[in-house]
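Deliverable D5.2: sample structural annotation.
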Amino acid sequence: MMVPDFFAIAKNILMSKGFQKNEELAKKIVTVYDLMQRQLSRQDFYDFSTRAVKSCVLACGNIKKKEPNQDEVRIVLKAIRDMNLPKLVFEDVALFDNLFMDLFPEIEEPEIDSDSL
């Protein structure tokens, strides 16, 4: 069975979207999805597959296009949170937040943009 290389997929998409820190950020994205898969509760509607990683990386590209001067680490953090936080059950939110404190210690949590709702 062939297993997709999430790191290569994320790195190449980030690179194609103009991210300078594509390797470092791809590693963080893949690590977050791996940790979510292993540490969060098992829910039928959770999806941490290739499709989810690719959607997240494409969201990074969309944010970068709208905010080209925004820090790349902040862009990735915002995309991961925006793509995953709304679908988490309450019990998993604290665990999810702890993942970010571990992987992105240099960045404070971005505010969630819910104005468009």
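Annotation notes: Helices lie at 6-16, 22-39, 50-66, 72-84, 90-103. The domain at 6-103 is CATH 1.10.8.710 (Helicase, Ruva Protein; domain 3).
The annotation will be released with the project's public dataset once the embargo ends.
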